Fold this sequence. Notes:
Distance between the termini: 30 Å
Radius of gyration: 16 Å
Number of helices: 4
Largest sheet: 2 strands, antiparallel
Strand content: 5-15%
Helix content: 40-55%
Number of domains: 1
Amino acid sequence: xxxxxxxxxxxxxxxxxxxxxxxxxxxxxxxxxxxxxxxxxxxxxxxxxxxxxxxxxxxxxxxxxxxxxxxxxxxxxxxxxxxxxxxxxxxxxxxxxxxxxxxxxxxxxxxxxxxxxx
Length: 118
């Protein structure tokens, strides 16, 4: 059961398709490069450059997906590539990039703030 059923964008297929395989290929490449940098005790600036490039790539890649601005059910959440779903293709909770929180996270945050401010 989706916790965000009321926020799903009309006409969005569930589960919602996205190029998960390409995203995972890129993630594996970045992790391989990251391990190599750590193994050679590279300067932290090299690691930061790698991670900044990965964030730029993922922001562009995810933003270009067909359902990039839709609320749906995108496979891959909570560090699990299969079986768990997130509401939007990109959210700071998924990528740590600058897109910010998705609409479902925004609602949850607002509810918690409201609950604690009464």
